[in-house]
TrEMBL record:
<feature type="domain" description="GST N-terminal">
    <location>
        <begin position="75"/>
        <end position="181"/>
    </location>
</feature>
<dbReference type="Pfam" id="PF14497">
    <property type="entry name" value="GST_C_3"/>
</dbReference>
<dbReference type="InterPro" id="IPR004046">
    <property type="entry name" value="GST_C"/>
</dbReference>
<dbReference type="InterPro" id="IPR010987">
    <property type="entry name" value="Glutathione-S-Trfase_C-like"/>
</dbReference>
<protein>
    <recommendedName>
        <fullName>Glutathione S-transferase</fullName>
    </recommendedName>
</protein>
<dbReference type="Pfam" id="PF02798">
    <property type="entry name" value="GST_N"/>
</dbReference>
<dbReference type="GO" id="GO:0006749">
    <property type="term" value="P:glutathione metabolic process"/>
</dbReference>
<dbReference type="InterPro" id="IPR036249">
    <property type="entry name" value="Thioredoxin-like_sf"/>
</dbReference>
<dbReference type="InterPro" id="IPR004045">
    <property type="entry name" value="Glutathione_S-Trfase_N"/>
</dbReference>
<dbReference type="GO" id="GO:0004364">
    <property type="term" value="F:glutathione transferase activity"/>
</dbReference>
<feature type="domain" description="GST N-terminal">
    <location>
        <begin position="3"/>
        <end position="83"/>
    </location>
</feature>
<dbReference type="InterPro" id="IPR050213">
    <property type="entry name" value="GST_superfamily"/>
</dbReference>
<feature type="domain" description="GST C-terminal">
    <location>
        <begin position="183"/>
        <end position="258"/>
    </location>
</feature>
<dbReference type="InterPro" id="IPR040079">
    <property type="entry name" value="Glutathione_S-Trfase"/>
</dbReference>
<dbReference type="InterPro" id="IPR036282">
    <property type="entry name" value="Glutathione-S-Trfase_C_sf"/>
</dbReference>
């Protein structure tokens, strides 16, 4: 039976648009739920959004995925848009993760810029971030610097092959060493946890480096009093759903997320 894809997101392009583009390129059929802001609070707590966020891709039979990059990779794989060998796959994922880092940073800078539009320092930081990321991507594309990235960590594999982006390296090594589930849905579910924890890690990084004492205190309370407990609650719920809470977050053995 052909898989059914139901994409849940807001009525904007945002994080769902690359997924929609892949469906369009493949000519695959899918349904969409474009949620309006007044419907969001109920949906957020309905249990349909594993980490209380969208996009979510529902696959039928109670299966669903969140985390836009995980959905994108899963759909790319299913629809024949990812390379077949594991190194080329990891290379493609390096771009996805580098662009994601870029999006996160741009969003933060855009928020700061909007709060203080006259602050030229913020505008130039915004431009500098765009230039820095484009240079990294350009280096990767043109195989400059021997194809190596100057983002650490880097995993060198011999024969001039190397990978950057910590979660790409983690997934590649997990795959090579037998720590990923064998089915594509199980694999994607493991990646949801890796990406959700990375979202938290990003917030933590911002808090650690914040120099303004007032802002740092606000970030700390948002992180420790809201974000961490909320995410642990989501993880606990998902854990309870897997094997009745006996064992692991995904499947029945240690995989790349746990
Ligand atoms: N890392 C996640 C981030 C998801 C995210 O931030 N989603 C936003 C919309 S773009 C959301 O659901 N916001 C509403 C909320 O958090 O209540 C991903 O890439 O999917």
């Amino acid at each position: 039976m052909a898989p059914s894809y139901h994409l849940v997101y807001f009525d904007i392009r945002g994080r769902a648009e690359p997924i929609r583009i892949l469906f369009a390129l493949a000519g695959a059929s899918y349904t969409e739920e474009r949620v309006n802001p007044s419907e969001w609070p109920a949906l957020k707590t309905s249990g349909r959004c594993p980490f209380g966020q969208v996009p979510v891709l529902e696959l039928g039979d109670g299966k669903s995925l969140c985390q836009s990059a995980v959905i994108l990779k899963y759909v790319a794989n299913e629809l024949g848009f990812s390379p077949s060998d594991s190194y080329a796959k990891a290379q493609a994922e390096m771009f996805v993760d580098s662009i994601k880092d870029f999006q996160n940073e741009l969003q933060r800078l855009a928020r700061e810029k909007a709060a203080d539009p006259k602050d030229e320092k913020k505008s130039s930081l915004y431009d500098a971030e765009i230039a820095k990321t484009l240079e990294i991507i350009d280096n990767l594309l043109q195989q400059k610097n021997g194809g190596k990235s100057y983002l650490l960590p880097v995993l060198e594999l011999g024969d001039g092959k190397s990978l950057c982006q910590s979660s790409v390296i983690l997934r590649y090594v997990a795959n090579e060493l037998g720590f990923t589930p064998s089915d594509s849905y199980g694999k994607a579910r493991a990646e949801v946890f890796v990406d959700a924890l990375k979202d938290l890690e990003n917030q933590f990084g911002r808090f650690i480096w914040e120099k303004d004492a007032d802002r740092k205190a606000k970030m700390k309370s948002s992180l420790y009093d809201e974000e961490i407990p909320k995410n642990l609650e989501f993880i606990d719920k998902l854990f309870q759903q897997n094997n009745g809470g006996k064992g692991y977050l995904v499947g029945d053995k240690i995989v790349n997320c746990c």
